[in-house]
Design a protein that fits this description.
Layout: E1 11-12, E2 19-20, H1 38-87, H2 90-110, H3 114-135, H4 144-173
Antiparallel strand pairs: 1-2
Helix pairs in contact: 1-2, 1-4, 2-3, 3-4
């Protein structure tokens, strides 16, 4: 009588949850050292946790940039409404509505496509400043501290978004994106 072939028991990788043969030294999907020593496993898990921490840190910077866009929207709305009520210039009323809506829209978009949305927001904000300088050259120094703070926050958020994008790419390439 012939003996039935014994099928190896398939285990799941503790990192990516994919099926792994018990004889395997590494997970084919994510590279986890399933057959490795405790040191190898700890080293792998440490590298994974470092990447996750870096991603959370970059995403926190992006979140601060999104908050900057909401605050900027409110400040623009408030300033333009004050100028409208003191001068009765309808242009300020329109700008006081359109610009905040644009920045709020960019803040919402940044939740889906942070790098692109934050670059557009930075370019838009700098363009607004420069266009104001062409109309009124003295405006370059008006509110300079606020302008520097906003530009710095947006530049930092753009860098954070790019870092997050790169880290997510690394995690996906290693199939570590749980």
């Amino acid at each position: 009588m012939e003996e039935a072939a014994v099928m190896p028991i398939i285990e799941n990788c503790p990192t990516c949850k994919k099926a792994v043969s018990p004889e395997a030294k590494f997970c084919d999907s994510c590279g986890y050292p399933v057959g490795g020593s405790t040191f190898d496993k700890n080293e792998f898990e440490y590298a994974y946790e470092v990447k996750r921490y870096e991603l959370e840190k970059a995403q926190g910077v992006v979140k601060n940039g999104v908050t900057t866009l909401y605050v900027l929207s409110g400040l623009i709305l408030l300033a333009d409404l004050v100028v409208y009520y003191t001068t009765d210039n309808v242009g300020f009323l329109i700008a006081g509505i359109v610009l905040p809506v644009m920045f709020v829209g960019l803040a919402q978009w940044a939740k889906v496509k942070p790098f692109t949305a934050l670059v557009v927001a930075l370019v838009l904000y700098v363009t607004l400043i420069l266009s104001d300088v062409f109309v009124n050259p003295a405006s370059i120094v008006q509110g300079i501290i606020l302008k520097i703070i906003v530009i710095s926050a947006l530049v930092k958020a753009v860098r954070g978004a790019k870092d997050a994008q790169n880290i997510m790419g690394e995690l996906e390439a290693k199939n570590w994106n749980q």
